[in-house]
Write a structure and sequence with these properties.
The chain is of the alpha+beta class. The protein folds into 4 domains: about 90 residues, Uridine Diphospho-n-acetylenolpyruvylglucosamine Reductase, domain 2; about 110 residues, Uridine Diphospho-n-acetylenolpyruvylglucosamine Reductase, domain 3 (2-Layer Sandwich), CATH 3.30.465; about 90 residues, Alpha-Beta Plaits (2-Layer Sandwich), CATH 3.30.70.3450; about 90 residues, GMP Synthetase, Chain A, domain 3. It has 17 helices and 19 strands. Strands 12, 13, 14, 15, 16, 17, 18 and 19 form an 8-stranded antiparallel β-sheet that branches.
Length: about 475
């Protein structure tokens, strides 16, 4: 270990962090599993934290770790919720925190490049100052990085109109597991073989380290129009949203809440027992008014009833407020969220299957859901559960049982196990089900070819070898 630290110090100087506080601060993400470990005093710290300032320095750190066979965990701002950046005692955390800031802006081509460690809100503010938007608004925008968006294949709250992160990425720079540097070609489209960017988008640091991201921007839209409708049940709401999206309407925000979540989020704005759908419409001049009128007609045709638009205003005011898991632990509660996806024809059945399965876990007092991202051929479901185990020693087991129930019900329904939070270590046990034998073998082969010693974020994403 001494040799590893000496070699890292030679490469990084003061950008190598070895103090307990520095290592502890970068030893976790925002997952319930991580916070529960910290609450119980069981946090695992890495051997060192590297904070390089250039892509060449990242490559040098990788080469040192390869020479010493030290595992590497790449970390952005630690906002992930599925255990994607949890280190081992012999690992080196490579933090992208000093790879931050705008690198380039090309207004004519609507392109902006940022260091991977740039906070999302900082990147958005920089382009808005020039009349543009990235269009990516995850709940964690003020505590997540643009590199983290790419690594986890993230989705934002405006995805129905603007797409997901893979639709916004124009170019990437990354360090590969052999220490070499990859830069994608700057072009709006290519038919030059497989798109290698997609080996990195969603790889969560297992196939490379994203160091710079170039986004294709959009002009800032006109101020939007907000509206809401409530429906008799989840089936009616799903049918209404499908009737909006399938013909081609693309409100940036399309969200449908089940009855319990509707009451929790919107109170008296929605009658008890009804499901609330909210919409935001925006775009070039005249678009929002046209779309809002068409969507209103479609929702009423689907037997929706108009609700006060103040309900949507309230959602926008509260949308990025995230609870502290520890505060809930101290109240005797274990709470988490799980997002999955499927086609329209299976969506309502999947909702009932997952909420029923999670509700059956001993100690669960609530299992609810909503849809927050819609597509031509389907949508996601975003579940929340709250459990009250009798003993704090049961928190971890109850949390695992809820996840197991949700994932098994999702797999049984033939649905996708992850929509936008990524895989990390929490979902990794179900990746073989997600990919199937052929897909699992293919991803394992890619991993073996790029990272034969399994040093890049071992234990995350990649399915276990088939016996």
């Amino acid at each position: 270990m001494t040799g590893l630290l000496d070699d890292l110090a030679a490469v990084l100087g003061d950008n190598l962090l070895l103090g307990d506080d520095d290592r502890r601060l970068r030893s976790r993400d925002y997952s319930v599993r991580s916070e529960l470990d910290e609450w119980r005093g069981k946090i695992t710290m890495p051997a060192a934290v590297a904070t390089p300032t250039t892509v060449d320095a990242v490559a040098a750190v990788v080469r040192v770790c390869l020479a010493h066979r030290a595992p590497i965990v790449t970390r952005g701002a630690g906002s992930g919720v599925v255990g994607g950046v949890l280190p081992s005692p012999d690992s080196v955390v490579i933090s992208t925190e000093r790879l931050a800031g705008m690198r380039d802006l090309e207004p004519a081509d609507l392109l902006a490049s940022f260091g991977a460690g740039t906070l999302g809100i900082d990147a958005e503010n920089r382009v808005q100052a020039h009349g543009f938007t990235i269009g990516h608004w995850p709940q964690s925008i003020d505590r997540s990085t643009v590199g983290g968006w790419v690594a986890t294949r993230a989705s934002g709250q405006y995805s129905t109109a603007y797409g997901n992160i893979e639709d916004m990425v124009y170019g990437l720079e990354a360090v590969l597991p052999d220490g070499s540097i990859y830069r994608s070609r700057s072009t709006p489209r290519a038919a030059a073989g497989p798109d290698l960017r997609h080996l990195l988008i969603g790889s969560e640091g297992t196939l490379g380290i994203v160091t710079e991201v170039t986004f294709s921007l959009r002009p800032l839209p006109e101020p939007g129009i907000r509206q809401a409708f409530h429906f008799a049940d989840i089936e009616a709401g799903v049918n209404a949203i499908r009737s909006v999206v399938v013909p081609g309407w693309r409100p940036p925000v399309v969200r449908l809440y089940d009855a319990r979540e509707s009451r929790r989020h919107f109170g008296e704005h929605v009658p008890r027992g009804r499901c609330m759908a909210i919409f935001l419409h925006e775009g070039p001049p005249g678009h929002a008014q046209l779309e809002a009128a068409a969507v209103a007609d479609l929702c009423r045709t689907a037997e929706g009833e108009s609700a006060d638009s103040e309900a949507v205003d309230h959602w926008f005011e509260q949308r990025n407020i995230v609870p502290s898991w520890t505060e809930l632990f101290e109240q005797g509660l274990v709470v988490d969220t799980i997002e999955v996806a499927t086609g329209w024809s299976k969506l309502a059945d999947l909702y009932h299957a997952v909420t029923t399965a999670v509700s059956a876990v001993p100690g669960v007092i609530a299992a609810t859901g909503h849809s927050s991202h819609a597509y031509r051929s389907g949508a996601n479901l975003y579940f929340s559960f709250a459990a009250q185990p009798p003993d704090p020693d049961d928190f971890a087991a109850t949390h695992a049982a809820c996840w197991n129930a949700a994932m098994e019900a999702t797999v049984a329904a033939g649905a996708g196990i992850a929509h936008h939070h990524g895989v990390g270590r929490i979902r990794q046990p179900w990746m073989a089900d997600e990919l199937g034998p052929g897909g699992s073998a293919l991803l394992a082969a890619v991993k073996k070819a790029l990272d034969p010693d399994d040093l890049f974020n071992p234990g995350a994403v990649i399915p276990d070898p088939v016996a």
